[in-house]
Amino acid sequence: MSKEIKLSQDILIVSETDSKGIIRYANDDFCKIAGYSREELIGQPHNMVRHSDMPKAAFKDLWATVQAGKIWKGIVKNKTKNGGYYWVNATAYPSKTPEGELRYISVRVKPTQTEINNAIELYKTL
Ligand SMILES: Cc1cc2nc3c(=O)[nH]c(=O)nc-3n(C[C@H](O)[C@H](O)[C@H](O)COP(=O)(O)O)c2cc1C
Question: Ligand 1 centroid to 45 CA: how many Å?
């Protein structure tokens, strides 16, 4: 049985990818909740935390939005290293390094139970 990790209010999961979605930065909360060391996350494609319940359409929308220079918001179910899962209220947006290299940043907080329930219903239809 896969186990749900419920985030606490003070958790802030941050990651940064390059233009291709390769993880370039992971904060301590990301490592802690996903169950990976920073070394295991950096350099890997961000779909390493993708949960199979997530519809492809959600990430298609995420990518189209951030590639258009806009801010994407959504409720995302991610998997942990040991087969558990956690829901997040995610915001993703484009940025640039001081050297001018394109980056995508995502910041995630605890979603409400209503947001999770709505996402479960929505994703059944996608
Ligand atoms: C900044 C940023 C953060 C992302 N965060 C996640 C995430 O937390 N979980 C996830 O499954 N995909 C995340 N993605 C999307 C993945 O890059 C990928 O598109 C998704 O996991 C679906 O995998 P696929 O493209 O191989 O089908 C993120 C992408 C970006 C640009």
Answer: 8
